Amino acid sequence: MNHRIVILGGGYAGAHAASRIARGLRAPDASVTLVNAEPNFVERVRLHQVAAGQDVEPVRLDDLLAGTGVQTRVARVTGLDADAATVFTDRGELEYDTLVYALGSTGRAPEGTFTLSDHGGALRLREHLGSLRPGDPVRVVGGGLTGLEAATEIAESRPDLSVSLATSGRLGSWLAPGARRHVREAFARLGIAVEEGTTVRPGEGEGTTVWCAGFDASSLAADTVLETAEDGRIRVDRTMRSASHPDVYAVGDSAFVRGPGGRACEMRCGMGVPQAWQAANAIVSRLAGRRPSHYPLGYLHQGISLGRRDGVIQFVRWDDRARRGYLKAAAAARYKEAVCRFAIASVRWPSYFPTRRRAVVAAPALRGDEAHA
């Protein structure tokens, strides 16, 4: 028996799912193939650094997954027939027995603006910023984590530019009071003008616009027979298994799953990785003939870079509400860097710390009832 497991997408969620599944199953019994549009793993949480002109050394997926048993295939996914269990790519078709859908999300970037949702977008912004003259205006739209990081990184690397940030609310309104003050102090130190309570329409203003006002799930799933939510994410149960197709799992920004308080989990790296672990554990358990376990999904912290030597780490409750505790300045910058490094190192763990690989004893049940037990 060779159970074919295919993972679509080699971002944080896809890479973690692939390495954990391969670690948990015997190679003769199961094959794990990771399909990604490019050969490199994209550290999405570092794209603001790339855009600002810093050298972020790329990590090849082959190297990242070396020793895990995962086979990588560089191809762009063009379609999915979930009823026929077939993936279509620009380099041929792939049939699967179990699919992990981890195609992530894309930035909402109106025409004429720049985005940090992918590596290509970060490189285009980097090239454009390099062509600007002193005093040229750069406006970042969006007051979320990505917007704060983009504005501060650009202002720090190009202090000669006129950098501003426009947000529909108050700057850092969701943070604890002390953390919010520190963000404002960092913006003042870097000379970033803040436009609060502002709704920006595409095409407004002069100069360069960097659009960081939200993400949309990959549109591929919505064009299939998979059951999706209104925002295009695949509806899954507590083990990240599709509500309509039990041989399909979804993780990361592609998954619609309820978190604390019954609210849908947000599109965030810190949520995608635990979802990947959850899906991988469930797949291994079911293929090994065991009842899958699950654990509640929740939040721990929010990490915000404010340049290379400054930042804020906001500790949060399980439902993402800010606690009073936070880190700031250099301590927060070191903490954020450690989190970024951990996100990479934990993909490699299977080769560093081998664990017992289980035999595939049967195909998983065609009903997900046990996930709700």
Structure description:
The protein has 373 residues and is an alpha/beta fold. It folds into two domains: 3-107 and 215-298, FAD/NAD(P)-binding domain (3-Layer(bba) Sandwich); 119-213 and 303-332, FAD/NAD(P)-binding domain (3-Layer(bba) Sandwich), CATH 3.50.50. 28% of the residues lie in helices and 23% in strands. The chain has helices at residues 12-24, 47-51, 61-64, 119-130, 145-157, 177-189, 269-287, 329-352; strands at 3-8, 30-36, 40-41, 59-60, 70-74, 77-81, 86-89, 92-95, 98-101, 105-107, 137-141, 162-166, 193-195, 208-211, 215-217, 234-235, 248-250, 255-256, 301-305, 311-316, 322-328. The longest helix has 24 residues, at 329-352. It starts with a strand and ends in a 21-residue tail after the last helix. 47% of the residues are buried. The mean pLDDT is 92.
Entry keywords:
373 residues; alpha/beta; FAD/NAD(P)-binding domain; 5-stranded parallel sheet; 4-stranded parallel sheet; 8 helices; 21 strands; 23% strand; globular
